[in-house]
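Researcher: Next sequence.
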Amino acid sequence: MERKRFFHESFNLEAPGTMIFSPFMDHRYAWDLVFIIDLIFSGIIFIPFFISLFLEKKSRWVCRGSMIGLSLYILLCWFQNGRAMKLTEVFAHSLNEEVIQVASLPQPLSPFRWAIFIETNDKIYQGFVDFLREERPESVSASSSFFEKLNRLYDPPEKINYRLWTKLQDSPWVEKALATEGVEFYYWFARFPVVKSVNFEDGRHRVEFIDLRFSMPEVRMPFRYYVEFDHSGRIYSEGFVEDRKKQRE
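Model: Next structure:
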């Protein structure tokens, strides 16, 4: 119980978003409708823009069509987000646990693909859905391409495979890592942070964290943050895993 109290009192788990009223307000707003890099959204804006450069007489109508198309696309994303949230809430109600928050987040390349999250006191459930899919795709191998692995990740609405993540592990090194400034800032930024691993190697204790909103199991797992301690508890090294690999190169 003490460990849970420390975790919740130490970090503000407010949903990340855009601080549009900064510096007057620090509240972050997010609608979770469009992926951070949405090629369809960008295409609806930029393709008509370039067309209007060659059709100056009809440029106003081209731009108006772009705005209409953009509005319809946002409405489509809003509708699909609502469908994903219904699935999320149904699964949350089936759990015999106190639910802290639920979310459905847009995914790359398609407005019909969503990541589903249900957070309880100790766990986070993660699922992926494709509303255009009726059957689960065939399994892939380690040698499969990125897009094959990405396609395999998404399940039909009636057959979602939820992955269970434990938010914290019972280790004094986890509590020590949570007290560092680097991890505190990471938790301020993260939306669904969990402890990925705790291990001991070469005389150092290493704790690694991930934010599940960016994680695609067996596909990619970016923004992994680690802290390494020596036996005395002093920080040996810390930072993002990707940055450490670049330094070695």
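Model: Residues 208 and 226 are 4 Å apart (CA to CA). Helices lie at 2-10, 39-54, 59-94, 146-153, 172-178, 181-189, 241-248.
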